[in-house]
């Protein structure tokens, strides 16, 4: 009992220091999560990184999916180190930041199958994020979390100011997103919601509204906002370019999905802090 209380306390202290310490950094943190796996989170993250970088912003991507770390595949690079080499104290933070072949995009590669329980009370992931932000080198840090609401994902969510949940309209994906809304509504201000595999902007908006209504009905925190930020269609080009280890937003500028992602970027640039 004592342990769990003191670990809660240390978490609070840790979060407070993060905010204070990084007040001077230009780096904004966006965390991408989903609840359900396989909804397109990593593809979404890699491609918004590309579109943001194209607008002249310096982007770092942290592959925080310990279930399936595949960001290096999407960017088609073979990084020498993962950010766990930094956690383990073998490498400096700069050593584990790899430049991708895309201008303005750096990657902190992850590792599948990591035993989080070894670190579950030590906030090492909070510190990795803090340290990247403290470098003051990047305009935006994108964190791609794994699926589910395990302690590892929760730690990343707890330190994030801007959280995007990507979902499909599939009932099981929506159930998972609702659980996420319930959890975040306790101590966050808002969640940005984006629909993948969704052809029509209106459909996403309608479903987002029904989630908000359900939250009201269940009397979740009234100050918590769910903001609908857009939709991405299913596109054969996305799966093809993924297999070829290329980014569809680079290869297919006129694809509907690329245009929809540009709209999402426009929203983000106006609304993240
Ligand atoms: N809008 C889309 N249209 C077609 N295929 C997609 C789309 N979004 C993702 N995919 C494909 O779905 C698969 C899973 O995507 P991925 O980004 O790895 O999901 P997650 O990171 O959520 O597990 C990949 O093969 C990817 O190319
Ligand atoms: Mg993924």
From TrEMBL:
It holds the Pfam family ParA. One of its GO terms (cellular component) is cytosol. GO terms for molecular function: ATP binding; ATP hydrolysis activity. PANTHER family: CELLULOSE BIOSYNTHESIS PROTEIN BCSQ-RELATED (PTHR43384:SF4), SEPTUM SITE-DETERMINING PROTEIN MIND HOMOLOG, CHLOROPLASTIC-RELATED (PTHR43384). ATP binds at residues 36-43. Signal peptide: none annotated. The keyword Nucleotide-binding applies. It comes from Poseidonibacter parvus. It comes from the Bacteria. Keywords: ATP-binding, Nucleotide-binding. This is ATP-binding protein. The keyword ATP-binding applies. InterPro entries: MinD_FleN, P-loop_NTPase, ParA/MinD_ATPase, YlxH/NBP35. GO terms for biological process: negative regulation of cell division.
């Amino acid at each position: 009992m004592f342990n769990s209380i003191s670990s809660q306390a240390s978490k609070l202290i840790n979060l407070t220091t993060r905010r204070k310490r990084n007040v001077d950094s230009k780096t904004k943190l966006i965390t991408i999560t989903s609840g359900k796996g396989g909804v397109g989170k990593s593809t979404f993250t890699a491609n918004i990184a590309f579109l943001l970088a194209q607008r002249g912003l310096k982007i770092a991507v942290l592959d925080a999916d310990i279930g399936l770390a595949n960001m290096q595949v999407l960017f088609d690079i073979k990084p020498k180190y993962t950010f766990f080499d930094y956690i383990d104290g073998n490498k400096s933070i700069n050593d584990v930041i790899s430049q991708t072949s895309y201008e303005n995009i750096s990657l902190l590669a992850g590792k599948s199958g990591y035993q989080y329980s070894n670190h579950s009370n030590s906030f090492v992931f909070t510190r990795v994020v803090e340290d990247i932000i403290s470098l003051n080198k990047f305009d935006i840090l994108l964190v791609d979390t794994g699926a589910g609401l395990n302690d590892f994902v929760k730690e990343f969510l707890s330190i994030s100011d801007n959280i995007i949940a990507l979902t499909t309209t599939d009932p099981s994906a929506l159930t998972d997103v609702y659980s996420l809304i319930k959890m975040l509504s306790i101590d966050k201000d808002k969640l940005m919601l984006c629909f993948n595999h969704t052809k029509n902007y209106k459909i996403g908006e309608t479903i987002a509204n029904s989630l908000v209504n359900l939250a009201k009905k269940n009397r979740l925190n009234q100050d918590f906002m769910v903001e609908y930020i857009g939709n991405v269609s299913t596109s054969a080009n996305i799966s093809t370019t993924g297999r070829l280890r290329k980014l569809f937003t680079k290869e297919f500028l006129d694809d509907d999905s690329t245009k929809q992602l540009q709209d999402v970027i426009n929203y983000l640039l106006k609304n993240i802090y």
